[in-house]
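Reviewers asked in the last cycle whether our approach scales beyond single polypeptides. To address this, we selected a multi-component target totalling 714 residues and predicted its structure end to end. The input consisted of the following lines:
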Amino acid sequence: MLELGYFLQQCLNGLSLGMLYGLIALGYTMVYGIVGMINFAHGEVFMLSAFLAFLAFVGLQDAGVMSLAVCIVGMFLFSMAITALYGYALEAVAYKPLRSAPRLAPLITAIGMSILFQNFVQLTQGAQVKALPPLLTGTNILGMFDHFAVTVSDTQIVLFISTLVTAVVLYAVIHKTPLGRAQRACAQDAKMASLLGISVNRVIAITFMMGAVGAAVAGVMVTLYYGVLDFYMGFLVGMKAFTAAVLGGIGSLEGALLGGVLLGLIETLWSAYFGADYKNVAAFGVLIFVLMVRPSGLLGRPTLEKV
Amino acid sequence: MLSFLPPRFLASSYAKIAGWTLVAAVILFPFFVLQAVDHNGQLSLAPMTYRPYVLAVLGVFLGLCAVFFLPAPLRALGQSCPDFAVSDVQKKGLQVLLVVGLLLLPLVSNRAELDLATVVLLSVALAWGMTIVVGYAGLLDLGYIAFYAVGAYTYALLSTDYGVSFWVALPLCALLPAALAFCVGFPILRLRGDYFAIVTLGFAEIVRTLLINAQSITGGPNGVAEIPRPTLLGWGAADLDERMMMLYVLALAWAVVVYFVMRRLRVLPLGRAWEALREDDIAARSLGVNVHRMKLSAHMIGAMIAGICGAFFAAKQGFVSPESFTFLDTAFLLAMVVLGGMGSPWGVALAATLIVALPEVSRSFADYRMLFFGMVMVLVMIFRPRGFATARRPSVVYKPASGEKTS
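The resulting structure, written as structure tokens, was:
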């Protein structure tokens, strides 16, 4: 079992899974950085985006679009645009009216929204699992290790590229643009930022939309990579992405990606060597362990609670 | 983008309603109108039907009109819900009346009704236990159902594998969840509330995974069947009717016990400390409350109540499986606690009764109930954060001395 080729292949698969977690974790970490609250419905936003990608694909096929590249680009654009609107609506309904309420209140409205989203999709799209045939079927052999071919599939390559592009774009927006400067200002001190003429509500809404776009990239990639979706998928994936965000240090973009990759590796290697039965236990065990030992995560800075 | 429109229009309610209706129309369209159908592996779109879509957008539009044009009446409606002002004597009388009424219920109801009443009473007791954790101490425990599961499995396994009787197993069904609550809570309760929420959610998932996968102990997804039914000093062994009657009385007795425990806890120093740290844990700490210990005690007491409710559940059903302990069940419980007013026992009891009994009464409601509860949870938190049924009043109120002016 401890062959190098097998190990490398599992690492590569873990890396792919980890990138998906990382993409969703970006949304958790950005929202947490600004409003200091967990966006509980983020997993559901991811689920919505996967359904949107699926519907976009079926719609494009029906419209007679044959080119695969056009289809995939269409899925990305459609899913990202509408998911961003869902993120916007989520913020406006569940967070904006409760800006000054006790901390528990927005958490409960977000849980309400996630129940609402799940059941909305179940009622409109049906409870049965949707399956999409694999679109990108090519695989490339990277090398042979003791007769074990380590391969990377075309889907994985698209996943790596889209994750890196998303991460770089988000990083550039936050660190290089006026909008990003406003976001960082709100994260530091929202009241002061508003005194200096920044529309805090607008910045928060845009942050939710950016997080939703990250989740949408993950949603499209899940549709391409696994091709299996149901209305309940956002719950577990959302929790694991949150684990990834905490592991990497909540509030830090690099940390979210790093945490996602680490969690993906842990989970995949655990399944490869110890069986898949307890992989969720392993993932949540990591969450509890990190919170016990280093609550600020790997790349996060310890914070003082302000009164 | 829309700057060609006059700014006064853009700032008006009309523009906001139009904008939000447009957003709703866009985001609802794909899910309502596009339906994929599978013809032997070939995916294509089903013929489009617009009726539900148009109705949904119309509903959003009317809701927006209500929110923007009637904010004052809505808010007043939210705040003017009955604030039951009854004296203590009346309250005692009402309580006795209610218990006597519930005791007489088996005489007039059939088997199905009695069964439903037992389920309602157990749900009320469980929701009250969660009220202690969420409503009193302000800890959002999203893994509450896990302690219920541990209690249920403790009794189920002890009785089927070792032949332990119900009354001997009962203390264990309380202690084991409490010990687990200590182990989970001890490291996590130092952190902020939302971390606690997520970790408890993960904990519930771990417990469920263990129940499913540890096949040799728990029976896996098939669960544990043929759990022996309890008897009360020989009562309840004769036939089905007598047993159901006994279970109903047991559930009622347990609900009354939980009620008194939570009423007493609230006015004890412990309950006041919980209340203080719920409102502001930094202030509570600076007043000398041992925040960590208080949170841990609330978590453990809640877990004990859940464990015993679980044992009753296992004894009533005669069968337990991991299916009964999903996040959906936690969501139901949370809906009961939130809609009931996060700390008011009667409000929670009313909400629990409605949530459990309504789907039984109307089957068509069952399909939409979670959608409905999600929506109501959001609306209640926005328009009436203190809950639907009753107001939550502080247990200690500052009474100004005579001569001092109140503002």
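The mean pLDDT of chain A is 88. We regard this as preliminary and will revisit it once experimental data from Aim 1 are available.
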